[in-house]
Amino acid sequence: xxxxxxxxxxxxxxxxxxxxxxxxxxxxxxxxxxxxxxxxxxxxxxxxxxxxxxxxxxxxxxxxxxxxxxxxxxxxxxxxxxxxxxxxxxxxxxxxxxxxxxxxxxxxxxxxxxxxxxxxxxxxxxxxxxxxxxxxxxxxxxxxxxxxxxxxxxxxxxxxxxxxxxxxxxxxxxxxxxxxxxxxxxxxxxxxxxxxxxxxxxxxxxxxxxxxxxxxxxxxxxxxxxxxxxxxxxxxxxxxxxxxxxxxxxxxxxxxxxxxxxxxxxxxxxxxxxxxxxxxxxxxxxxxxxxxxxxxxxxxxxxxxxxxxxxxx
Length: 313
Prior knowledge:
Distance between the termini: 53 Å
Number of helices: 7
Strand content: 15-25%
């Protein structure tokens, strides 16, 4: 039995993700049993589905399709996604909508039984390999920005989809920018209700966090791998100065990651606290220029004559 056939048999047996419903790669069992299944299959020498290659599909697209997809969408997409026949990418971020994702400018206009999409996405991992993409676009510009978004499943082979690599200083192109020009998406590939894309996208993003947090890399996995391989294979380079330089670089990267995580966390808190209701109402935020966590300070209450209208996040 070839690897692909073995993976299909595992999916059909309900051992792909045991907490999914029967018929969709699962058994309706507790999610905690997945690690037991994976360990037993690994010990028996069963092949895996190369999760690093199809991670966006596994960790982001699949749980969103499971929650919001129609039965036809679940049957069509989940099996080829899990066995690795179809790679997925994420078309969310834009040049003008990164941390403020709801400010996206990509438009989807209803036309007949489908939608015509125009816009640009950026920092898209695996776009050059992907067959499908999870896509959010603005379908109503006359409502608050969070309310005018709709979620789609986009065929990356459709006419009008152009993928351009973003070349890094290393010469590699791990990310891409994607241009969408009059891309036609049938309404049958809309996920969730029209205008409900922000809520659907939250499911995707929450599952992305879970997937990243639960990711297990092997020893020397990730960016340290090439450095470790070079260290073993090129003994003439093993100088004391290079050793210190590598250690210093690792610590700098870890510190930068922690600062970025703190900034994102506090950015979310500041956006939440711009509302006029809830526990943060009446508070403003200040950010330290040194990048330290922002602090909340009490703001004076507005008088009746100078009360400002509520602001959305």
